[in-house]
Write a structure and sequence with these properties.
single chain; mainly alpha
Length: 105
């Protein structure tokens, strides 16, 4: 819980390596907050990591990764949707479409 709470506060790129490592943590709540943090401080170098998180077994991890990916720092929403489709995982595609629809609303 402490680590997840700390990740919610991350706003500095100096913590990027820690955030990247947290994306593979065994606890889904930590992966969720790491994906959100990458959306705030990550760059194109983190796009592949976020794309992999779209296939996470936990819905919240996929959701935060999708939100991060369509934030504008990782490519256009159309480009992100196309990249998600390449995984052949319907849950990855669904969550990206959901995030795009929310953003439009």
């Amino acid at each position: 819980e402490v680590m997840a709470a700390a990740l919610k506060q991350v706003r500095s790129v100096s913590l990027l390596d820690h955030v990247r490592r947290a994306c593979t943590h065994e606890m889904w709540a930590i992966r969720t907050q790491a994906a959100a943090a990458l959306g705030r401080i990550g760059g194109m170098a983190d796009r592949e990591l976020l794309l992999r998180l779209l296939c996470d077994p936990q819905w919240w991890v996929r959701y935060r990764a999708a939100q991060a990916l369509i934030s504008g720092s990782f490519g256009s929403p159309h480009e992100i949707a196309s990249l998600a489709a390449e995984f052949g995982d319907r849950f990855a595609v669904d969550i990206v479409e959901h995030a795009i629809a929310e953003r439009r609303a």
